[in-house]
Amino acid sequence: MVSILRSMWLMLKHLVVRPVTVRYPEQKAYIPPRWRGRIILSRDPDGCERCVACYLCSAACPADCISLQATEDEHGRRYAEWFRINFSRCIFCGFCEEACPTYAIQLTPDFEMGEYDRSKLVYEKEDLLISGQGKYPGYNFYHHSGVSVKGKPRGGAVDETHPVDIRSLLP
Amino acid sequence: MTPGLWTLVIGVCLLAGLLGLTTGMIWIERRLLAQFQDRLGPNRVGPLGLFQPIADIIKLFMKEDWMPPFADKLIFVIAPGIIVVTVLLAFAVVPITPFIKVSDANVGLLFFLGMASMGVYGIVLAGWASNSKYSLIGGTRAAAQMLSYELPMGLAVVSVVMLAGSLRLSDIVNAQPRLWFCVLQPLGFVIFTIAGIAEARRTPFDLPEADSELIAGYHTEYSSMKFALFFMGEYLDIILVSAMVTVLYLGGWHGPLLPPALWFIIKMFAVIFLFVWVRAVLPRYRYDQLMTLGWKILLPLSIVNLVATGAVMLVMR
């Protein structure tokens, strides 16, 4: 009896508490940068596609929603001839991102992908490819520092980059 | 204007007002309950979500009115009507002001109790006619629950009748111009309110519905406007019990400054607020707890209340 009256008093106090509701279309909730949302294909700092069409993302995908076709340019550089993600199948698990050796495929904090037509949920390469570098700015898979040999330190050759100072990466 | 015509006008206005208030109750309850739970509730359709009930009703009209092939057709159709009609009939004896009332029957209180009992038929028949196990369990629960709670309710009301010396509801209101009966009858007030919540099948006494156990209890098989009628009946029941609490214990239209009708409405909405408040606080009782509360607590208490009231009246005289 007393406990019921106490609960009623406690509930009454909630009449003056601010509602926690986020009025979504007008107010946006904070979405953390590592949110697993819409999948994109990023480019490296030179503006070239990072994707080397290794099929690892496609193999890792538990929902089998990624399909692509590898091809090579005149220099023998592999890239995806076409790249297709069926977002009506995608479960946004992020395995493709983990599998990707070149940081090409990335998940972004965008989730507003609703469509009235299912076929519009199939994203082609031109829908997926962005002009920026995504979550890993400055990373280029093909840049390397080499190894130090006699008369040449690491990163000393023409096509080599300076090694990363790992202390600068400390948090 | 002849008295007969005036009664007719009042009756039609009351009917329209009640049906409007029923839709309004959906909004009031959802917004208020949301506020209790730190949410906003419906706020999209119209200003402050005021048109939400209208959208709900349009949706219910558009729904397929499906009747299960195994149902008892005639009773299945009549049952939701019984609930709404009995509650609406009970409103006939509720005096809102000395002038705004449909009928001033000298057995008004008995008529109210009778109509409240008749409402059980709607639920039991709905549960029976649906011919499904959940509906039947809901219906039997409703029968047991409403019978158990009508007794303490009736006994609590007897004390009020003893104080007022009349079964006419306007006489009962006129007997409390200064001192409301909720002061003289605090126990009876609490018993009547609790029994009223049980009569209206509201949380924590919504065992006939019991979504988590019985899908939707007696209205499991209903759809479209038949389903809507059950909800209308439930909301009308809330309004009716609130009005009766106002008349019997809160002094009806009596109050300073403001016009009588406004006082009545204010008091009625205060009780409606209490209904929503209780819903926000308490979970559903278990079936044995419900029966224990009804038979072992409320009924003896109401008898004690009755005897005490009689004793005090005898001493005072």
Radius of gyration of chain A: 24 Å
> How far apart, in Å, are the first and last alpha carbons of chain B?
44 Å
Count of helical regions of chain B: 12
- The CATH architecture of the domain at 33-136 in chain A would be 2-Layer Sandwich
Q: How much strand of chain A?
A: 5-15%
Helix-residue proportion of chain B: over 70%
Which sequence of SSEs, written as H and E, runs from N to C of chain B? HHHHHHHHHHHH
Q: Main beta sheet of chain B: strand number and arrangement?
A: none
Overall geometry of chain A comes to: elongated
Greatest contact between two chains: A-B, 13 and 13 residues
Poorly predicted runs of 5 or more residues of chain B = none
Uncertain residue ranges of chain A? none
Record field, number of beta strands of chain B: 0
Number of domains of chain B: 1
Distance between the termini of chain A: 56 Å
Mean pLDDT rating of chain B: 87
Question: What is the CATH third-level topology name of the domain at 33-136 in chain A?
Answer: Alpha-Beta Plaits
Mean pLDDT of chain A: 88
Percent helix range of chain A: 10-25%
Order of adjacent strands in the largest pleated sheet of chain A: 2-3-5
Number of strands of chain A: 5
